[in-house]
Here is the input.
Amino acid sequence: MTISAPHEALAGPLTGIRVVDLTQFVLGPFCTQTLGDLGADVIKVEDAGGDRQRRGTGKTAPAPDLSGPFVQLNRNKRSVVLDLNEPEAKEALKALIATADVFIHNMRPDSIAKHGFGYEAVAAIRPDIVYVVAMGFGSDGPYAGRLAFDDLIQGASGTCDLLPLYDGDPALRPLPSLIADKTCGLYAAIATLAALTHRARTGEGQYVEVPMLETFTGFMLAEHLHGQSFVPARGRFGHPTTITPHRRPYKTKDGYIVIMPASQEASNRFLELGGVKDPYNSPRFLEAKDGKARVDAYYELMAETALTRTTEDWMAICAEARIPAMRANRLTEIFDDPHFKATGYFEERHLPGEAGGYRSMKPGLKFAKTPASVRRDPPSLGQHTDEVLKELGLSS
Here is the structure.
């Protein structure tokens, strides 16, 4: 069954905040979707070609302007088409800015200024505007103004050197996720909320910069500077417990499970539940020739123990024994996970027009008084142009 909630349902904590969103791709849309989930009125301003993330990959898109990634990054928004090369469109955007609390873009400064919407120009229209710029590199460094994409930031931040620490293959590789884009999108949301808080206290708007390289490097290296955190250095890069090749799910009789004993006592309980008596005094452990061999022996015992029961058995046993454990889902199993099913996390909803249905993932944040919600489905290109312009007293 597919459902669509009424627009006025479930007012979130940002109800009454209007965001004018000129972002595209991943970082900016992930930020503004988060703000929209929290109740903000997000107006996505696009040119006639639309956000380039709209374009489908292969045959997966049910409509030319509704790719899978676009659908998952653009709920709770209204789409307005404005060609900023046209004077009428610029006037419409100015009228929209006059009603806005936040103006956010990921264009290069010279490009947005060419259109007449740099910070000073926007602040002249709305002095208390929170003006957020998502950029690749901080404006005070030699990389300022360069184009940036997720892979470039993973490369410059050292992230591409983490998998070699994990598996011993020296080839630099990005992590298989647009993790820099999405992480920096969350930083942009945090920065926006902080600036809105400052405005609520003082009445002042401000210019806010969210540079990908700096924010993502701090995110990734929080644990991985490790011994290099100190001067002089007291060790290598890489947090030992996160880069060990032993860090992986264990195979069970019918699937996989992640076991994370918080202590030697918890490890001992798990191994004994699998039939290994007094594991730390077992011949295999005691006869290991050195510390590395004992670590290898420990993980071999863990793997062998996991194979003695089904995933569901271990879930129940570990819960009762208070051993941290969780099933490891293959992607094809995600929709059937009992927790996701019980919470209705994946919800089937309607796309606009004849595009059909889509899976929406519920916002994870919960507020007792002002719940986050999915109020609007991802819009088709320009779906709300007439509606928004009419609200401004303009004609399309």
Observations:
- Residues 1-8 have pLDDT under 50 and may be disordered.
- The chain has two domains: 18-222+340-391, 250-327.
- The longest helix spans residues 179-202.
- The chain has 16 helices and eleven strands.
